[in-house]
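Hey team,

Filing this mostly as a record. A colleague (T.K.) asked me to run one chain through the structure pipeline before their review meeting, and I want the input and output archived in the tracker in case anyone asks later how it was produced. No errors, nothing strange. Just documentation.

Input sequence:
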Amino acid sequence: MLFRRRSASAFVRRLLYFALIGGLLWLLWLGLHGVMSANEDEQAVKTLNEFYTMEQSGNFGGSWELFHTQMKKRFGKSTYVQQRAHVFMQDMGTDTYTFELGEPQAEYDIRTDQNEDELGKAYRIPVTQHYKTRFGTFDMVQPCYVAQEGEQWRVLWIYKEKE
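Output structure:
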C-alpha cells in the first residue's frame, strides 16, 4: 500500500508540474502575441507619421518611397512629386500644414480599387491635415491605410467605394 501512495503522489506531482509548465508557456505566448499586435499598430502609425512629416516639409519624393507597390503603380514618382507640389504649394498657396493621426484600426481584405488584389491585414488611420491657404483655413480628413509589404510598412489610399 505504501508503494501505491508514492506512485500516485509522484504521478500527481508530475501532472501538476506539466500543468504549471503548460500554463506558463500559454501565458508567455499570450504576452508575446499581445506585444506583437501592439507593435504592429505602432509601426503602422510610425510609418504614416514619417510619410506625412515628409509631405509637410515638401519632400514628396521621400514620401512616395513609403507608398505600397499598388500606389506606386498608380503614381509615377516624378508625376506624384510635381502634382503634389503644384496642388498644395502653388494652387492653394501654402508652404506647409499641420496634421494629426487618429487611432489605428485593423481591417482585413481591403482593396485600393476593384482591379487590385486584396491586402491581408492593414491598419486604417484617419489623417487630418490643417491648412492655412490663400482661400482660408480648412481641414482635410482622409482615411489612410498602412499595410506590411515584405518586411516594410507601406502607405495606401483607397479609391473604391465601400460596398
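Quick notes for T.K.: The chain has a mean pLDDT of 85. The CA atoms of residues 103 and 125 lie 6 Å apart.
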